[in-house]
Amino acid sequence: MELPAAIREDHNPLAVAGFFPGLQRLLIFVRWTSYSCPHCNAVFRRDYWPSNVRLGTGERVCRKCGRVFDDGSREWPELPLGRKLRLLFSPLVIGVWGGFVIAAIASLFIGPRDEHSWSVVIVVSTFGLMPTLALSPIHLTQVIRSIRRYNARAEQS
Ligand SMILES: [Zn+2]
Predict the structure, then answer these.
(1) How far is the CA of 52 from the centre of ligand 1 (A)?
(2) Where does the chain have alpha helices with state H?
(3) pTM metric for this prediction
(4) Burial (CB count within 10 angstroms: exposed 0-12, middle 13-18, buried 19+), residue 54
């Protein structure tokens, strides 16, 4: 059964704030994507990262009009590898890690040559992976639940 897809809309206040260079720096983090019901336009979700991967059956009943549509979510076994990786390594996590790695490498150039700073780079880079490790139990639970849902649905049909 083909369901109508949710309406996706990108909101970027930067276009408006372009006149204010001071504000621009603050607003760079305030961009979001809204998803709304294709039947009645009721917004059901706002994401602060573009093309976020969501696990789910894809079917959603609108809270406002009660009609069914495709909210864009897919179960784990249905996702291509790229989207699986994207779910596990979100841009925020990658950003935090990248920041740590850059800081660690920068310290190599700032610190005195005779100090062997490569161990620092390794320690700091590993430390930067903490958000990934902290989130992995949550992700694992989501993935297991998604696979169970997918299998249950496969048995029904
Ligand atoms: Zn609706």
Answers:
(1) 22
(2) 14-17, 21-27, 81-88, 91-110, 118-127, 130-156
(3) 0.70
(4) middle
Smallest Cα–Cα separation from 9: which of 17, 18, 26, 38? 38
Distance of CA 154 to the CA centre of its chain: 27
Q: What tens digit of pLDDT does each residue of 105-152 get? A: 887 777 666 566 677 778 888 888 887 788 888 889 999 999 999 999
Decide: 24 and 17 in contact? Cβ < 8 Å. Answer: yes
Nearest residue to 51 (alpha-carbon basis) of 29, 68, 80, 73: 73
Phi, psi torsion values for 45, nearest 5 degrees: -160, 145
Neighbours of ion ligand 1 (CB under 5 A): 37, 39-40, 42, 62, 64-65
**Which is nearest to 78 in space by CA: 51, 58, 49?**
58
Domain boundaries, the chain: 1-73, 77-157
